[in-house]
Batch of 4 targets.
Target 1
Amino acid sequence: MGSRGFGSSHIGGRSNNEDSLLVSDELGLYVVADGMGGYEGGEIASSTTTEGLHRFYDIVGVNGDVGMRTAGSGGRTVAEDMMRLAIRQASHDVERRRHGRLQGMGTTVAAVLIRDGGALIAHVGDSRVYRMRRGLLQAMTEDHSLYAELLAAGGIAAGMTVNKNMITRAVGVPGASRPDVRLEEALSGDTFMICSDGLTDVVEDGDIAEVLAAFDPKLAAEQLVQRAWINGASDNITCVVARVS
């Protein structure tokens, strides 16, 4: 079982692009990170994170055992523990550079690792992972945002204004970088879409499903980014689409 992915990114309505992406068919690793922090901070935080994950799994190797089916700690698999470690190391790399004009930097991250019949899904912040299976689109992550957490707790009253983009977890921010990680079975034909909120803020799930069903991964990624831009995206727009073969 293999996978093939493509990524696309657009500056959107911003003056610079603080998003980063990683596509590695060889490793089966697909990542999107949405940086924050102004100056050059967002760009540095997001690229440090994608590069850190790439470096971690490159050391493991293409044929290395990532423990998709091996029991680890606390009822988790070794693969889940490894992904947590990879993100923790990336977070430490960002933290070490948080000084001076980079003091406020951090980044979201969303990642999918497709290996050995499994799809390992991880995220921090509000970058998302979706899965298209047999025509059905499913969100595989829940945003780490104030809005999402208030909504889940039933704490948003009628007429209440909440900043939907205020995240509660971020890579590189001490004490707030814990990832959610889950392991799912990967089936031939499954399509995973990973994106920053610049896309999902302006493109509805129905449109995402339509594009993923109609196009191969390369065209799907390009089409989704283009739709977000046409729809008036005010933020950077980044999308990676990977299909299991």
Target 2
Amino acid sequence: MLFIYLLMGVVGVLAMIFAVQNPDPVAVRFLQWRIADLPLSLVILFSAIVGVICAAVSGFAQQVRLRLKIRQLERRIAQLSDAPDKSSSAAPGPDTTRG
């Protein structure tokens, strides 16, 4: 886990250096919208934040699916452990007549 935090810190520092070295104004167009003269560093920062949010939402959705699956499997385990074991009552016992 420490490695992940360290990696995130390094990537963050590199992104900040990149943003500081690119202060030129740019025009951003998306569908019908047009925003002129935004600093490139702000566009980069906004894009990074949107990427982090998308990744977090995706991870959260996967975590919810896995928790639901775990709950379903735990219920199934409880059902199987509460049911009488039919195979052991039908199986013959060990042969004790041999000597």
Target 3
Amino acid sequence: MRYLFIAVSAFALTACPQSEDSAHTQGTEVSSAGKADVSDGMIVCDMQDFDGMKGLTLTQTFILLDGKVKRYTAFDNTAFDLCEPGQENCSLALDGNQIVMDHLNESDVRSRYVVNLAAMEIEPFKTQPGEEEKLMSFREGDKCERKPLPEGMQVR
């Protein structure tokens, strides 16, 4: 059940719009403005009207801790690794000014999220089997938010 929750919450992540002053890198728009804050903290990205579904808000929450990135669930106040050691088709990493999450589920649907920490914007991508990668839509102007680490948070 926990893996289903992780897969569903991973897909729930939506992209924040890109700034016009961004540079194109690896198929992902990355803002060149400002330096990213990669210090310990929680990054919350709410994507309203995700994939054109009015009223649907998908949230991706990440924990930055000791130079690494973890997923977070408020359900049990826990930061955890998205992937098992050596797990194929699964990654979550801090790459310069970005959090990059990539996951292939059991139905061969690939979800990829890129969070630009300088601009506090997220881009969600989805790839169905046999199709090209698609940038998912959400409400224009939605941004990610930095928050303090949750009190009493458990780390796995």
Target 4
Amino acid sequence: MLTSSALVAAAADIFRQANRHDLAIPAYSRALGMVEDPEDRADVLGYRAYAHRFAGDIPAAVTDMRAAYELDQSVDTRLLYVSIMMDGDQRVWRDGIQVARGLFAEQPDSVLRLNALGYALIQRPEGLEEGYRLLWRGFNFGQQDYAVVDSLGWAYYLYGHFEEARALIERAVSLNVGDPNAEVLDHLGDIYWRLNRRDDAREQWRQALAADPDAIRRRQLEQKLSRGLTASAPRVRELPRVDLPEGPRQRDDL
């Protein structure tokens, strides 16, 4: 028989999956008051952190994620920690990178961990070169993994190489056609806009809106649909050299 805390947590999870984070967050808070086991508390805190993030409250998400990490350093908790922290300020981002480096060091050929560290790194200009190299390594091992294909494509975008970015992120979309991802579709819309494919860009942004984006991305998508991209395009820069142990040898061998 489920305990009261498990029932409350289960109800909160139903709300979260239905994107009713206004109901999920207080339900998780109630469940948190009922559990004492450290791992169980970490689970609830992690779920509540995710709900806060989806609702657009990054400081609350970071606070909960730090508390979850204090209680449990399992792989799942650390991966969620990295995901939450890369949306924070510079200090928070650096904390996330440190945890991501630990995950990578434990299993350096893991596509999941390469992508976690690489994508977190490219969120800041100072991490772009290292992140690009790591994502190429991840792509080398996981060319059918839509997440790492998208991440590498976004690194190309940030270097101003829009055609290469387009080829990769179109591929990422096709690899995940059964479960559209708002972030990937948003990326593709931005790339189309830079390539002066304005109608295609707006169509991708509309699809991203239909794919249940978080609150922050939803606002950004609505602004893009209204005004397009207003920030300057990333300038074209030389791509770092990448030496790969196996698999595709050239950057254009996609």
